[in-house]
Amino acid sequence: MTIDDILSGLQNQTIGRQIQTYDRVGSTNDLALQSGTDGAEEGTLILAESQTQGRGRHGRRWLAPPGSSILASVILRHRLRADQVGLPNLIGAVAIATAIKELTNLSAQIKWPNDVLIQKKKVSGVLTELEYDQHRQPFFVMGFGVNVNTTKADLPEELRSSATSLRIESGRKISRVVLLQTILHRLEQNYLRLKCSDTEPIIATANRLLYFSGDWVQINTADGICCGETEAIDQDGGLLLKDINGNRQKFLVGEVLQTGQATPKN
Fold first, then answer.
1. Whether residue 215 has pLDDT greater than 50
2. 243: helix, coil or strand?
């Protein structure tokens, strides 16, 4: 992917108008955090063909054969309110899921708070990190990876039951340039809604695409394991659960460990 190729079909005003590309990096998020600290423009996109220290939530590594995936991070400078900190991962996941559907007609789902799945297997993940620049102004970096043209043979055997790619699911190679342009377009639309506090359409889409809607789930939180029936994603990006006694709880952070179809009986 070249900068000219990406810019030639990109209609955005902000996200992706400035692009830095690399053949091989440790982590695109690390580069974006440093660039943001040094004053890089809002919307600056960091792209790599491969990365050696790519990471997801909880420090998990994101590995991909060179040239097979989209490995990117975007610098965004909207000052998040306290009730918006749960939204960046979600607006990224919604942008990716809708772009996949638009380009490939594959039905992608969102596993709260930041993964995109196809046929219950992970195809993409989003990681948002907050930082301050040299003037002590806050900004955040939204990093995302998408398995685009990874083959089954490229995947480690231990991941083949839990990970997939657009090529595996569609049976054909997908243009990374066109997919990236589509993701960036959707992301800019969602980001503008975030800045204007008009996120209801994003939340509605997230709920329509929610992987475990209505299921009984276990969530790992800082306070331990919590269980409940999934009700919805709230307007601030939190996940609403109803426990076995009918009490509602909201989680802004956590990891879904297990899902089940039936709600346990008292």
1. yes
2. coil
| Residue-range definition of the domain harbouring residue 254 | 216-260
pTM score, whole prediction: 0.93
Q: Is residue 95 domain-shared with residue 188, that is, in the same domain?
A: yes
Number of Cα atoms under 13 Å in the Cβ half of residue 201:
11
Q: Model confidence over 178-192: pLDDT tens digits? A: 999 999 999 999 999
- If one counts the domains in the chain, the total is 2
**Which one-letter DSSP state was computed for residue 197?**
T
Work out the number of other CB atoms within 10 angstroms of the CB of residue 52.
11
Edge-first strand order for the sheet with 255-260 is 248-251, 239-242, 224-233, 216-221, 255-260
Nearest to 88 by CA among 100, 102, 74, 101: 74
147 with 83, same domain: the answer is: yes
What does the DSSP 8-state code read for residue 83?
G
Three-state secondary structure call for residue 112: coil
Round to whole Å and give the CA distance between 66 and 51.
8
Round the average pLDDT of the chain to a whole number and report it. Answer: 92
Tell me the pLDDT tens digit for each residue of 111-141: 999 999 999 999 999 999 999 999 999 999 9
Pairing relationship of beta strands 109-111 and 216-221 according to DSSP bridges:
unpaired
138: preceding bond cis by omega (within 30 degrees)? no
Q: Identify whether residues 78 and 165 lie together within a single domain.
A: yes
Contacts of 59 (CB under 8 A, 6+ apart): none
